[in-house]
Amino acid sequence: MLIGGATPVDRTRVIENYSWSPEAYSRNVRLGWGSSVENEFIELKDNYFVGNIYVQGIWKDAEVKNNHFYSERIDISEKEFPYNVYCNELPVENKIVLHENEYNPDRIDLIIYNWEDLGSVNVHLGNFVDVGKRFEIYSVLDLWGEPVVSGVYSGEIIRVPMGTKAPVQPNGYPNAITDVDNPGRRFGVFIIRVK
Questions:
Q1: pLDDT exceeds 90 at position 176
Q2: Quick check: 188 pLDDT over 80?
């Protein structure tokens, strides 16, 4: 994620974003560009960032709170912005994020950080899907293919298989996504469709 450029930015809001990187020292987020650009205000709140966090240029004012930074390099001062989690290693416990879609009540976004490297991860849909409703869970890597899980929700935990869909390669570049760029089963983004 890149915020800013050669022209100063103001009233920038980076709220509730989730990023993945294969290592704590890998590329990820860059706030600002160059050493002399004088940016105004940035609000950085409720984010979960994995990978290096670079801050460049000058930021005149900032509100930075309730973020989780997992990175070997974090250019945000823990002393100046104490209300965040700062860690220079990857997490070890899984994280599951469910979001209702504000435009479609029958669609839920699911993000799974599978730090435990399990073949499938347990997800509770209780606050998002009513018992008795039909659901289908699709990997964003294959939205129009077969769902990774489907059924009628019984109120029990759903086991979501990880790493079952390979990333789609860009047209003309058959080997663009390989090795560490392929999250495999360590990270997945899914769409849940409720019928």
A1: no
A2: yes
Can you spell out the DSSP letters for 25-48? TS--EEES-SSS-EEEEEEEES-E
8 Å CB contact between 31 and 55: yes
Neighbouring C-alpha atoms within 13 Å toward the C-beta of 74 = 23
Closest to 51 in 3D by CA, of 80, 91, 97, 84: 91
Residue-wise pLDDT for 3-18, tens only, equals 988 899 999 999 999 9
The C-alpha atoms of residue 97 and residue 113 are separated, in whole angstroms, by 9
* pLDDT of the residue at 194: 97
For the chain, domains (ranges, CATH) are 2-87 (no CATH), 95-194 (2.60.40)
**Count of positions (residues) in the chain:** 195
Is 22:180 a contact under the CB 8 Å cutoff? yes
